[in-house]
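Q: Structure tokens for this one, please.
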Amino acid sequence: MGLRLALPAALAIALVGACSGANSSALTGGGSDGGANGSSSSGSSGAGSTSGSSSGSTSGSGSSSGGDAGDGPDSGSLADAGCGPTSCNGCCTAAGACETGTDPVACGTGGAACTACIPGQKCGAGACAVPAAPVALLFGGNDGATVYGDTWLWDGDAWTASSTGPSARWGAAVASAPGAVALFGGTTGGTTATYDADTWMWSSGAWAASSVATAPPARRSAAASTLGSKVVLFGGFAGGTLYYGDTWTWDGVGWAQQNVTGPSARAGAAVATLGSTVVLFGGYDATGSLDDMWEWNGSAWTELTVAVPTIRRGASMAALGSDIVLFGGSNAGVYDSDTWQWDGTSWTALAATGPGAREFAAMAPVPGGVLMFGGFSGTSLGDTWLWNGVQWTQRNVAGPSARSGTTLVALP
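A: Here is the predicted structure, written as tokens:
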């Protein structure tokens, strides 16, 4: 008969607890793994070992207690979740996720907490702010596969898609009118092209069709610019060999044809207003590209006999201060990437690098320089550039898709 010893109750409980802690550590590896992870992150092997054994004897959670700090937060803080200044360039959500920080619903930078912008604000440079007033408007264009009817606004820093208006088209003529923007004509392009003869006005952030009794015949690629309180429109193309050489003016209410002689019929001429005259250069007709230069003073055209840039069509031109800047164009399938300056007396070729060669890019004066977008160089382009009078700077911003034959105008 075996000998049976009765142990005091307190001693029995102590022995069971010790065995339980040892078994927990041995089965789960909580004590040793916890100590190893703890020593690598804290530099104290003793701390890891103590954490493992203590956890095992009291709660059996030694592996969590002694594990990597990044295993998971138990307080919900951004720092514990791994999102912060050292790991996130954008902003951190309450759940600890790193966002880009450019969305109005999650705006911020430098690993700070994300902020939701209030209605009417946008997120720019990691901060909510009321967007700057737009300074230029872009409409339409085509990329060889799609003809566009979208409107975009430029505020000096970014493009923003705006309201719809005229039907999709490219090659429309556009210019600032008193307190508004006037748009005329254009085409759908393609083998079954249709040409437009409608007039639209942009005012107070929206397009509205203008009902007029008399208007120029339908056309695309006419030249248009503002002189005083009127828009002057010249030339254009309407299919086959139909090139126009007529001059029209728009006073904000109606069109009036000007019975004057001037440049020969053409399309794709570059045009800009400098002081009290509208300057027109180049273009093309059924025989090819042109290189003559004309001025409109409000009542008559005068040809200027000066040395001019090389022959071209589809060049881009806009005024900057007391000068006009001209960029690009093409002749006989060769695209240009040169920059020229007209000071009212003579042309100067500028030693400026920047945009690649192209024709039919859109250009308009804006505060601080001249804005240029897109164009065509064998393929459609979608880059944005700014000329400050000395150099070109590319603006790496999202915006309209690649296209040419679009219209760009400074907002009044």
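A few notes: The radius of gyration is 35 Å. Residues 1-77 have pLDDT under 50 and may be disordered.
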